[in-house]
Amino acid sequence: MSQRQVHLAAHFPGVNNTTVWSDPQSGSNIDFSSFEHFSRAAERGLFDFVFLAEGLRLREHKGEVFDLDTVGRPETVTVLSALSAVTRRLGLVGTLSATFNEPYDLARKLATLDHVSAGRAGWNVVTTNDAFTGENFRRGGYLDRADRYRRAVDFIHAARSMWDSDAGPFDFSSEFFSIFGNFPVPSSPQTHPVLFQAGDSPEGRDFACANADAIFTRHAALEDGKAFYADITERLARFGRSEDDLKVYPGVTFIIGDTHEAAVERSRSVAYQQVSGPGAIAFLERQWGRDLSAYDPNGPLPDIEPDDGSGNLSQGRVQHVKDPRPLIEEWRRLARDKNLSIRDLVVEVSTRHGFVGTADEIAGSMDEYIQERAADGFILIPHLTPGGLDEFVDTVVPALQARGVYRDEYPGDTLRDSMGLPGPTPADQWAAAREASDQPVGK
Questions:
Q1: In whole angstroms, how far apart are CA 161 and each of 16, 176, 399?
Q2: Has the keyword Iron been applied to this entry (predicted)?
């Protein structure tokens, strides 16, 4: 039985606290030279794609942009279009909101990107419903959570209809859109850019299984990944799709060392670079809902209770925990048991160095994940901008190739070729399959 092949992709760092800005090798997350260096390294490593996150508003903490997080996010499609001129086979995937865009305009941009890149465009479909982001837009944060996936499904259907029109007339009416006209872009090399989705809620998983070609996940641990993969496979069947129709890519970090012990020590050093003293306090404030600036990050956890009123001093972040009190009690037990300071505790619970070891050890672990069906590939999140992929490409990629589980050349010209995806489903067939399903996604 042939071995399953490892797929690799990369997330451009600089928009989260994974990035170590204090490192002398750290560069700009805005200058195009950084995007170019990063993408050229990914292509040299035969990666499927490079992925750009996008925030439509900079995150704020206590009413100010938190300068240890990120300062600046260029517009995604513009950057990807420029990258198409300095790469030849690398996929170009951008996060773009289905809430604060319109189908005609975004479908035209993505079809154009697919043309100028010769078939390498991908769209990570996200939904946005918060009023904080909406303040940058005329309609504000009007969209209820219950409506955001329904709008996204209608948005995708409208875009597919335009892409299938081949520079012809389109007429699309739904709950959220009533649009008609002539699409100005001929059919692109992939016809439909590859669709991605990042979400872990039941609604998000169903949305991906019904609509996307790939799903991002935070499940990097082996057993968690296997459970997630099995759940996705089962959900796909409900929508009349097979395991091969949707690729699973967990986002993972990595630390490489000449020996295992050296890698572990380097991982610890990087973790403390990622979590500064002010960063640790801000991390706690997001759960306590209180100003904790009077506390020493090298001292014990606050003994006060969280604020049940505001509950969140940060804006622009996904709040995964609805009731912070059980989590805070768990942190207190952990801090007591291990004698952890505030900063120690935040390092313990927030850093995720998914693969730590020598190049051969990391290659072996990645191989195991793929063979055990915990993933189809990995989106690497390095801690340095822009050179964070270089060491991985130079050491781990050859180790994967030596195992016979990683390619020696690109299999084709398009992103679908690189990912091993089937061709796009025409809009009418896709819509009919959704209607035939007994699942409520988008309803």
A1: 35, 15, 44
A2: no
365 is annotated as contributing to ligand binding: no
Burial 389-421 (b: 16+ CB within 10 A, else e): bbbbbebbbebbeeeebbeeebeebbbbbbbeb
Written as six digits, the tokens of 138 are 């005329």
Q: How many CB atoms lie within 10 A of CB 168?
A: 11
Confidence of residue 127 (pLDDT cuts 50, 70, 90): confident
Domains and CATH numbers, the chain: 7-257+353-436 (3.20.20.30), 276-350 (no CATH)
pLDDT tens sequence across 400-431: 999 999 999 999 999 999 999 999 988 888 88
User: Annotated binding residue at 133?
Assistant: no
Question: d(Cα 179, Cα 170) in Å, to the nearest integer?
Answer: 8
Residue of 349, 347, 350 lying closest to 298 (CA atoms): 347
152's tokens: 């996204």
The token duo for 384 is: 């340095």
Measured distance CA(17)–CA(117) in Å, rounded: 31
Question: Cα separation of 373 and 40, whole Å?
Answer: 29
Angle CA(218)–CA(223)–CA(226) in degrees, nearest 5? 75
Using only C-alpha atoms, the chain has a radius of gyration, in whole angstroms, of 22
Check the annotation: does 149 bind a ligand: yes
* Cα separation, 265 vs 145, whole angstroms: 43
Please indicate whether residue 437 or residue 365 has the higher confidence score (pLDDT).
365
Q: Which residues contact 168 (CB under 8 A, 6 or more apart)?
A: 182, 183
Span of 352-361, 387-396, 413-422, 430-439 with lowest mean pLDDT: 430-439
CB 314 within 8 A of CB 382: no
Amino acid at position 73, single letter? R
DSSP state for residue 140 in the 8-state scheme: -
H or E segment and range at residue 90: none
